[in-house]
Amino acid sequence: LKVGEHAESVLTTEKGRILDVLVLYRASANSLILAGLSKKGEQLNDWIGRFIVMEDARLTSLADDRFQYLVFNLQDFDIIAELAKQKIIVLQLKYPGVQQALCVAEKESKSFLESFMGDRGIMRVTREQYETYRIQNGIPGHPNEVSLQFNPLEIGLKSLISFTKGCYVGQEVIARLDTYQKIQETLQRFILSVVPGQLPTELFSEAKKKAGVLTSSTKPEQPDEQIYGLGLVVPNVGGSRFIYSGLGNGLNGIAEVIAQ
To answer: Residue 43 gets which letter from DSSP?
Structure first.
Protein backbone atom coordinates (compact mmCIF):
# COMPACT_ATOMS: atom_id res chain seq x y z
CA LEU A 1 0.00 0.00 0.00
CA LYS A 2 1.13 3.54 -0.79
CA VAL A 3 0.58 6.31 1.74
CA GLY A 4 -3.14 7.16 1.77
CA GLU A 5 -4.24 3.82 0.26
CA HIS A 6 -6.22 1.15 2.06
CA ALA A 7 -7.27 -2.48 1.64
CA GLU A 8 -9.65 -4.92 3.31
CA SER A 9 -8.62 -8.34 4.47
CA VAL A 10 -9.61 -11.26 6.68
CA LEU A 11 -7.50 -12.68 9.47
CA THR A 12 -7.91 -16.44 9.59
CA THR A 13 -6.70 -19.16 11.90
CA GLU A 14 -4.69 -22.22 10.87
CA LYS A 15 -8.04 -23.96 10.22
CA GLY A 16 -9.22 -21.15 7.94
CA ARG A 17 -11.74 -19.83 10.47
CA ILE A 18 -12.34 -16.09 10.84
CA LEU A 19 -10.57 -14.19 13.60
CA ASP A 20 -11.51 -10.72 12.35
CA VAL A 21 -12.22 -8.62 9.26
CA LEU A 22 -9.83 -5.69 8.90
CA VAL A 23 -9.40 -2.45 7.02
CA LEU A 24 -5.71 -1.53 6.71
CA TYR A 25 -4.77 2.10 6.01
CA ARG A 26 -1.24 3.24 5.16
CA ALA A 27 -0.96 6.37 7.33
CA SER A 28 2.73 7.01 6.61
CA ALA A 29 5.80 5.29 5.22
CA ASN A 30 6.33 3.51 8.54
CA SER A 31 2.85 3.08 9.98
CA LEU A 32 -0.42 1.28 9.29
CA ILE A 33 -3.78 1.81 10.97
CA LEU A 34 -5.76 -1.43 11.39
CA ALA A 35 -9.49 -1.11 12.04
CA GLY A 36 -11.16 -4.36 13.06
CA LEU A 37 -14.81 -5.34 12.88
CA SER A 38 -14.83 -7.02 16.28
CA LYS A 39 -14.35 -5.24 19.60
CA LYS A 40 -11.61 -7.60 20.73
CA GLY A 41 -8.60 -5.31 20.37
CA GLU A 42 -6.43 -7.26 22.77
CA GLN A 43 -7.11 -10.51 20.92
CA LEU A 44 -6.17 -8.84 17.65
CA ASN A 45 -2.94 -7.45 19.13
CA ASP A 46 -2.01 -10.84 20.58
CA TRP A 47 -2.70 -12.64 17.29
CA ILE A 48 -0.62 -10.29 15.14
CA GLY A 49 2.10 -10.19 17.80
CA ARG A 50 2.58 -13.96 17.43
CA PHE A 51 3.97 -13.39 13.95
CA ILE A 52 6.35 -10.53 14.73
CA VAL A 53 9.65 -12.37 15.09
CA MET A 54 12.52 -10.67 13.27
CA GLU A 55 10.66 -7.60 12.02
CA ASP A 56 11.22 -4.16 13.55
CA ALA A 57 7.54 -3.67 14.31
CA ARG A 58 5.36 -2.83 17.31
CA LEU A 59 1.64 -2.64 17.98
CA THR A 60 -0.13 0.23 19.74
CA SER A 61 -3.84 0.42 20.54
CA LEU A 62 -5.59 3.58 19.33
CA ALA A 63 -8.87 2.81 21.09
CA ASP A 64 -8.43 5.62 23.65
CA ASP A 65 -7.56 8.25 21.04
CA ARG A 66 -9.69 7.47 17.98
CA PHE A 67 -13.20 6.36 17.05
CA GLN A 68 -14.88 4.76 14.05
CA TYR A 69 -18.09 5.61 12.21
CA LEU A 70 -19.58 3.29 9.61
CA VAL A 71 -21.48 5.28 7.00
CA PHE A 72 -23.66 3.47 4.49
CA ASN A 73 -24.95 4.73 1.13
CA LEU A 74 -22.33 7.51 1.10
CA GLN A 75 -21.87 8.42 -2.57
CA ASP A 76 -21.04 12.13 -2.36
CA PHE A 77 -17.32 12.48 -3.06
CA ASP A 78 -17.42 16.19 -2.14
CA ILE A 79 -18.29 15.15 1.41
CA ILE A 80 -15.38 12.72 1.46
CA ALA A 81 -12.99 15.43 0.24
CA GLU A 82 -14.27 17.87 2.88
CA LEU A 83 -13.77 15.34 5.67
CA ALA A 84 -10.22 14.69 4.48
CA LYS A 85 -9.44 18.37 5.07
CA GLN A 86 -10.37 17.82 8.72
CA LYS A 87 -7.93 14.90 8.96
CA ILE A 88 -10.79 12.42 9.09
CA ILE A 89 -9.86 9.23 7.25
CA VAL A 90 -12.64 8.00 4.96
CA LEU A 91 -12.19 4.45 3.66
CA GLN A 92 -14.54 3.11 0.99
CA LEU A 93 -15.46 -0.52 1.68
CA LYS A 94 -16.18 -3.03 -1.05
CA TYR A 95 -18.59 -5.58 0.36
CA PRO A 96 -20.49 -6.92 -2.70
CA GLY A 97 -23.59 -4.93 -3.61
CA VAL A 98 -23.40 -2.49 -0.69
CA GLN A 99 -21.92 1.02 -0.50
CA GLN A 100 -20.24 1.65 2.83
CA ALA A 101 -17.49 3.90 4.13
CA LEU A 102 -15.52 3.73 7.35
CA CYS A 103 -14.59 7.04 9.01
CA VAL A 104 -11.67 6.96 11.43
CA ALA A 105 -10.83 10.12 13.37
CA GLU A 106 -9.40 11.45 16.59
CA LYS A 107 -11.97 11.74 19.38
CA GLU A 108 -11.69 15.54 19.36
CA SER A 109 -13.36 15.45 15.92
CA LYS A 110 -16.43 13.51 17.05
CA SER A 111 -18.76 16.47 17.61
CA PHE A 112 -17.65 18.06 14.32
CA LEU A 113 -18.31 14.85 12.38
CA GLU A 114 -21.78 14.37 13.86
CA SER A 115 -22.71 17.99 13.14
CA PHE A 116 -21.20 17.83 9.64
CA MET A 117 -23.13 14.69 8.74
CA GLY A 118 -26.37 15.95 10.24
CA ASP A 119 -26.18 19.21 8.26
CA ARG A 120 -26.04 17.13 5.08
CA GLY A 121 -28.96 14.88 5.92
CA ILE A 122 -26.84 11.90 6.97
CA MET A 123 -28.47 10.82 10.20
CA ARG A 124 -27.13 8.61 12.95
CA VAL A 125 -29.09 5.38 13.40
CA THR A 126 -29.48 3.09 16.36
CA ARG A 127 -27.69 -0.24 16.61
CA GLU A 128 -31.01 -1.99 16.00
CA GLN A 129 -31.65 0.05 12.82
CA TYR A 130 -28.21 -0.82 11.50
CA GLU A 131 -28.73 -4.50 12.31
CA THR A 132 -31.93 -4.43 10.23
CA TYR A 133 -30.05 -2.81 7.33
CA ARG A 134 -27.18 -5.28 7.67
CA ILE A 135 -29.39 -8.36 7.73
CA GLN A 136 -31.62 -7.20 4.88
CA ASN A 137 -28.52 -6.63 2.72
CA GLY A 138 -26.83 -9.91 3.64
CA ILE A 139 -23.83 -8.31 5.36
CA PRO A 140 -22.11 -10.68 7.81
CA GLY A 141 -21.57 -9.19 11.25
CA HIS A 142 -19.55 -9.87 14.37
CA PRO A 143 -19.99 -12.08 16.33
CA ASN A 144 -22.94 -13.71 14.54
CA GLU A 145 -21.27 -14.60 11.23
CA VAL A 146 -17.75 -13.17 11.57
CA SER A 147 -16.56 -15.75 14.06
CA LEU A 148 -14.37 -18.76 14.61
CA GLN A 149 -17.33 -20.95 13.59
CA PHE A 150 -17.08 -20.07 9.89
CA ASN A 151 -14.58 -19.46 7.10
CA PRO A 152 -14.61 -16.43 4.75
CA LEU A 153 -15.91 -18.37 1.75
CA GLU A 154 -18.97 -19.55 3.65
CA ILE A 155 -20.11 -16.05 4.61
CA GLY A 156 -19.50 -14.38 1.26
CA LEU A 157 -16.11 -12.73 1.87
CA LYS A 158 -14.28 -14.25 -1.10
CA SER A 159 -13.63 -10.76 -2.50
CA LEU A 160 -11.44 -10.05 0.56
CA ILE A 161 -9.28 -13.14 -0.02
CA SER A 162 -6.20 -13.08 -2.26
CA PHE A 163 -5.39 -16.31 -4.08
CA THR A 164 -2.09 -14.96 -5.47
CA LYS A 165 -0.37 -13.10 -2.62
CA GLY A 166 1.58 -16.04 -1.25
CA CYS A 167 1.66 -17.55 2.21
CA TYR A 168 -0.71 -16.54 5.00
CA VAL A 169 -2.17 -18.31 8.01
CA GLY A 170 -5.05 -20.52 6.88
CA GLN A 171 -4.14 -20.33 3.19
CA GLU A 172 -3.96 -24.08 2.57
CA VAL A 173 -7.42 -24.72 4.01
CA ILE A 174 -9.08 -21.83 2.15
CA ALA A 175 -7.37 -22.64 -1.16
CA ARG A 176 -8.42 -26.29 -0.87
CA LEU A 177 -12.04 -25.34 -0.12
CA ASP A 178 -12.11 -23.06 -3.16
CA THR A 179 -10.30 -25.39 -5.55
CA TYR A 180 -12.37 -28.46 -4.77
CA GLN A 181 -15.63 -26.62 -4.08
CA LYS A 182 -15.84 -28.09 -0.59
CA ILE A 183 -17.68 -25.23 1.08
CA GLN A 184 -19.96 -26.80 3.68
CA GLU A 185 -22.48 -23.95 3.99
CA THR A 186 -23.36 -20.69 2.21
CA LEU A 187 -24.78 -17.46 3.62
CA GLN A 188 -28.46 -16.81 2.80
CA ARG A 189 -31.02 -14.12 3.56
CA PHE A 190 -34.42 -15.15 4.89
CA ILE A 191 -37.89 -13.91 5.59
CA LEU A 192 -38.87 -15.36 8.98
CA SER A 193 -42.34 -16.19 10.24
CA VAL A 194 -41.51 -15.62 13.93
CA VAL A 195 -38.63 -14.29 16.03
CA PRO A 196 -36.14 -17.10 16.82
CA GLY A 197 -36.15 -18.38 20.37
CA GLN A 198 -32.37 -17.99 20.47
CA LEU A 199 -29.42 -17.36 18.18
CA PRO A 200 -27.75 -19.26 16.73
CA THR A 201 -30.42 -21.88 16.17
CA GLU A 202 -30.47 -24.89 13.87
CA LEU A 203 -32.32 -24.95 10.55
CA PHE A 204 -34.07 -28.09 9.36
CA SER A 205 -35.50 -28.99 5.96
CA GLU A 206 -39.22 -29.69 5.69
CA ALA A 207 -38.18 -33.35 5.63
CA LYS A 208 -36.74 -32.78 9.14
CA LYS A 209 -33.09 -33.08 7.99
CA LYS A 210 -30.48 -30.71 9.44
CA ALA A 211 -29.96 -27.96 6.87
CA GLY A 212 -27.82 -25.28 8.51
CA VAL A 213 -27.96 -22.58 11.16
CA LEU A 214 -29.81 -19.29 11.60
CA THR A 215 -27.31 -16.71 12.90
CA SER A 216 -29.01 -13.27 12.82
CA SER A 217 -32.55 -11.91 13.05
CA THR A 218 -34.20 -8.50 13.05
CA LYS A 219 -36.39 -7.48 15.98
CA PRO A 220 -39.74 -6.09 14.79
CA GLU A 221 -41.05 -3.02 16.59
CA GLN A 222 -44.62 -3.52 15.32
CA PRO A 223 -46.69 -6.76 15.41
CA ASP A 224 -47.12 -6.83 11.59
CA GLU A 225 -43.54 -5.84 10.76
CA GLN A 226 -41.60 -8.20 8.49
CA ILE A 227 -38.87 -10.25 10.20
CA TYR A 228 -35.62 -10.86 8.32
CA GLY A 229 -32.83 -13.29 9.05
CA LEU A 230 -29.34 -14.37 8.01
CA GLY A 231 -28.01 -17.88 8.19
CA LEU A 232 -25.89 -20.55 6.61
CA VAL A 233 -27.45 -23.36 4.60
CA VAL A 234 -25.92 -26.64 3.45
CA PRO A 235 -25.83 -26.66 -0.40
CA ASN A 236 -28.19 -29.02 -2.21
CA VAL A 237 -30.19 -29.74 0.93
CA GLY A 238 -33.34 -29.17 -1.11
CA GLY A 239 -36.04 -26.52 -1.06
CA SER A 240 -36.03 -22.89 0.01
CA ARG A 241 -38.14 -23.22 3.18
CA PHE A 242 -36.65 -24.28 6.49
CA ILE A 243 -37.92 -24.89 10.00
CA TYR A 244 -36.37 -23.45 13.16
CA SER A 245 -37.22 -23.04 16.82
CA GLY A 246 -39.18 -19.86 17.44
CA LEU A 247 -40.24 -18.20 20.66
CA GLY A 248 -41.88 -20.89 22.72
CA ASN A 249 -41.48 -24.66 22.44
CA GLY A 250 -40.99 -26.78 19.35
CA LEU A 251 -39.94 -26.20 15.76
CA ASN A 252 -42.49 -23.52 15.00
CA GLY A 253 -40.77 -21.02 12.72
CA ILE A 254 -40.49 -20.96 8.91
CA ALA A 255 -37.43 -19.39 7.23
CA GLU A 256 -37.90 -18.73 3.52
CA VAL A 257 -34.85 -17.92 1.38
CA ILE A 258 -34.87 -14.51 -0.33
CA ALA A 259 -33.78 -14.92 -3.97
CA GLN A 260 -30.38 -13.38 -4.68
So the answer is: H
Q: How confident is the model at residue 98 (pLDDT cuts 50, 70, 90)?
A: confident
Answer for the pair 22, 34: CB distance below 8 angstroms, yes or no.
yes
E strand or H helix that includes residue 171:
helix 171-179
pLDDT at 249 over 60: no
Q: Hey, which residues does 190 pair with through a beta bridge?
A: 229, 257
pLDDT reading at 134 higher than 70: yes
SS (H, E, C) 107-146: HHHHHHHHHHHHHCCCCCCCHHHHHHHHHHCCCCCCCCCC
- Which among 20, 48, 250 is positioned nearest to 147, based on CA atoms? 20
> Residue 94, class by beta-carbon neighbours within 10 Å (0-12 exposed, 13-18 middle, 19+ buried)?
exposed
Q: State the virtual CA torsion across 91, 96, 98, 100 in degrees, nearest 10.
A: -10
Whether 123 has a pLDDT exceeding 90, the answer reads no
Output b/e per residue, 100-138; b: 16+ Cβ within 10 A: bbbbbbeeebeeebeebbeeeebeeeeeeeebbbbbebb
**pTM greater than the 0.85 cutoff:** yes
Q: What pLDDT score was predicted for residue 165?
A: 80
Angle at 61 between CA 56 and CA 65, to 5 degrees: 130
